[in-house]
Amino acid sequence: MQIPIFTVDAFTNRPFSGNPAAVCLLENGLDEDLHQKIATEMNLSETAFIRKLHPGDDFSKSACFGLRWFTPANEVPLCGHATLAAAAVLFHIQKNTNSVLTFMTLSGELKARQAEDHIVLDLPLYLTYPQVSQNFAAVGDMIVQDLRYSPDTKKLLVRLSDAYERSVLEELQVSAQRFLSAEKTGKVKGLILTLKGNSGGEHKGHDFYSRYFAPWYGIAEDPVTGSAHAVLSSYWSEQLGKKEMLAFQCSRRGGQLKISLRNDGRVDIAGQIAIVLKGNLTF
């Protein structure tokens, strides 16, 4: 069997930065266990599988496809950067002629459209709720300004003190593995660290910064995370009183996201892409 596969760096316009995702185009059905085996083999934070919904569908002409995402360890209900990567493969490699693509996923219908040199994802917006502060092992003795929980996504949002600079977040040694050991209830599946943006200095222009950790899914740190920004967008919009924001995820690879809260309770998250690999899986 041969399956076309691509590696796309998402939320960046430079190869080898942003967040890499593998994208598989499934011309035919795939045995269920092979999804996980392929994702484990690719060993990226996410591998996306695009499938046709009807026998007569065409990757170049159809407007609606099925989409699933797998980490090296398990399937996940939502992945923003791999959705961006999947749309990039259809728009830029398959030359799909539709202005908007719809993906049927575990998180419902997700849409992607081209807007100049960006691809815009229409994602659910997830609310957060205050958490009682606790001894927070993952960030050591850092000052935590706010602690929130998103029950829909099982993500814990930790806002560090506004007194910290971006460099503090970038250099922070996070013990995600220690937090994994401490959190075994199943309540938390993702840890977001975030910091208010800087109005001055060399990094001015970003409304907020973040880093994201998901050891529960086998991902120590994810480079740039669309699904985390579906949570961050609601939090920072409320905190800053803004619906249009520019965010930067401060991983080693780094990536930028343009955010626009919609009037229908969803969020548009836009990013650029760089396609770095084209090939075939053969087995």
UniProtKB/TrEMBL annotation:
Enumerate the GO terms in the molecular function aspect: isomerase activity
Q: Which SUPFAM superfamilies match?
A: Diaminopimelate epimerase-like
Q: Which InterPro entries match?
A: Phenazine_PhzF-like
One GO cellular component term noted in the UniProt record for this chain: cytoplasm
The keyword Nucleotidyltransferase belongs to this UniProt entry's keyword annotation: no
Which keywords accompany this UniProt record?
Isomerase
UniProt-listed Gene3D superfamilies = Diaminopimelate Epimerase, Chain A, domain 1
Q: Which residues form the active site?
A: 46
What does the sequence similarity comment in the record state about its family? Belongs to the PhzF family.
Known PANTHER family for this protein? PHENAZINE BIOSYNTHESIS PROTEIN (PTHR13774), PHENAZINE BIOSYNTHESIS-LIKE DOMAIN-CONTAINING PROTEIN (PTHR13774:SF17)
The protein, known as: PBLD protein
The organism of origin for this protein: Rhynochetos jubatus (kagu)
